[in-house]
Amino acid sequence: MIYGLTHGATGPDGIAHWTDTATILALAGAAAAIIAFVVIEARSRQPLLPLWIFADRNRAGVYLILLCLASTFFGMFFFLTLFTQVVWGYSALRGGLAYLPFVGAFIVVAGICSAGIADEHQGVASSMFNAGQQIGGAVGLAVIGSVAWTVVNRHVRDSLSQVAAGHNLAGHATGPSSPIYDHALSSGITIALTLGAGATVLALIVTVIAIRVRREDLPDSPLVM
Fold first, then answer.
1. Looking at the chain, which terminus has fewer C-beta neighbours within 10 angstroms, N or C?
2. Cα–Cα distance measured from residue 206 to residue 203, given in angstroms and rounded to the nearest whole number
3. pLDDT at 48
4. Contact 9, 26 (CB under 8 A)
5. Rounded alpha-carbon distances, angstroms, from residue 34 to 4, 41, 138, 143
6. Closest CA to 17 of 2, 27, 7
7. For the chain, how many structural domains are there in total?
């Protein structure tokens, strides 16, 4: 799935690859694998992922929220790192320190994932918390990255077309730290963060609609990683 999503993005040549055979086969294969996994797990006596774990409204809502927020945070970390280091010229250390306020963002929802789960199933519930972060981050970053890099490549190509047409653009170079590339990268990052904001709004909507948890329902120790 990740290969299909990233391969379909528009490249520096301005050509999108969503209709390429490799992209279609990768996405179709991923869909078939997901369907097969669900069918096998539904029929297994000892499933790796018991599907009943999604029957609880709160827990299913939290997992969906995790997918949305992981997409946002992974995309944000990736693109803001590029922006701070390439456009603003931050060092790796300074860029890393800028993220300290975000530490622990997912901890607040971990307790809900395991609330009401028997001890023998705590491992499944907590592993889904981590899996939700990883899947949401990987798929979300692939989708957001595909759109963002499509925007970046199109901006660079359009700028070069204007140069070829005789327009006087400051700095004709297209490599990192050049005006053309910095502007294109900023435009792509703007789109990426806008998509991330949309995913965050979706997470908020899910929270309002799906989550119905009382304080007494939470476990004594909410930190389950």
1. C
2. 5
3. 77
4. no
5. 15, 11, 15, 18
6. 7
7. 1
